[in-house]
Write a structure and sequence with these properties.
Blueprint: H1 7-29, E1 38-42, H2 48-56, E2 61-64, H3 67-84, E3 90-93, H4 102-108, E4 111-115, H5 118-130, E5 135-142, E6 152-153, H6 157-165, E7 170-176, H7 189-202, E8 213-215, H8 222-227, E9 232-235, H9 237-240
Parallel strand pairs: 1-2, 1-9, 2-3, 3-4, 4-5, 5-6, 5-7, 7-8
Helix pairs in contact: 1-2, 4-5
Length: 247
């Protein structure tokens, strides 16, 4: 019996390496260091074996959209990773959050990238205080103004940022955006640029010096996002392959 990587592990490792090459090339083309761009593996509806393979290949941060799925997945992976001597990843919440699930969010995730309203920030702050921790957060901004998308509108972003900066158990470290689905990756470049410009304006707020992160760009358009200043890219299918879309 071979002790080498399985076919699945080899496939996922190739995917991870290909994404890394794309990130590196995009960063260099933009005159940036590849080390400035963090890869977040979007593991929504991916089986444990694919996630483990990605972690073996060097992915260090996982992004999840659904709280209950993340709770079950993190619990299941804890023992598997410990048994195989694989470092535990950091978990980022990147999906819409209902207020009633804020306790689970604070218990499960290392960072939250989808804060989009004051009442959610207040509830996360309260839950973080109960656990005696300070939660790094990003503010999700609906730059494109699509009604079906979560996120604070660009015109209300400064007010929400001021509110978050005043909460002692949250640490506002940047902005996140989910642009419209576009046939051409370059079509989202204006959204990425607007988010960067908004980030730069918010950094001038009192206490806003820590607002540095830009989480933007996914499998099809992260090169354009990197060229516009992304510090985090959220990549799913390009890393893991097609996800299980069954409910």
């Amino acid at each position: 019996m071979s002790d080498g990587p399985s076919r699945l592990e080899a496939e996922v490792a190739q995917r991870v390496a290909a994404v890394r090459r794309r990130i590196d090339a995009a960063a260099v083309a933009a005159g940036r260091s590849p080390h400035e761009v963090q890869l977040i593996g979007v593991s929504k509806r991916q089986p444990a074996e694919r996630i483990v393979a990605a972690l073996k290949a060097g992915v260090r941060v996982l992004g999840e959209n659904y709280v209950q799925e993340a709770v079950a997945k993190r619990s299941a992976l804890l023992e598997i990773l410990a048994d195989q001597g694989i470092a535990q990843p950091r978990w980022h919440m990147i999906g819409h959050i209902q207020r009633r699930k804020t306790r689970l969010v604070v218990e499960t995730f290392d960072a939250v990238e989808s804060v989009d309203r004051e009442e959610l920030a207040d509830e996360l702050n309260r839950r973080a205080e109960q656990r005696n921790r300070r939660v790094p957060i990003l503010m999700q901004v609906n730059v494109s103004g699509e009604n079906q998308k979560s996120g604070v509108g660009a015109e209300a972003a400064e007010s929400l940022a001021v509110h978050c900066l005043a909460l002692p158990h949250l640490e506002l470290t940047g902005l996140m955006a989910i642009p419209a689905n576009a046939a051409e990756p370059e079509a989202n470049r204006p959204v990425f640029r607007q988010l960067r410009q908004l980030r730069d304006r918010l950094r001038a707020l009192p206490g806003g010096e820590a607002i540095q992160e830009l989480s933007m760009g996914m499998s099809g358009d992260f090169e354009a996002a990197i060229s516009e200043g992304a510090t985090r890219v959220r990549v799913g299918t390009a890393l893991f392959g097609p996800r299980d879309e069954r409910p």
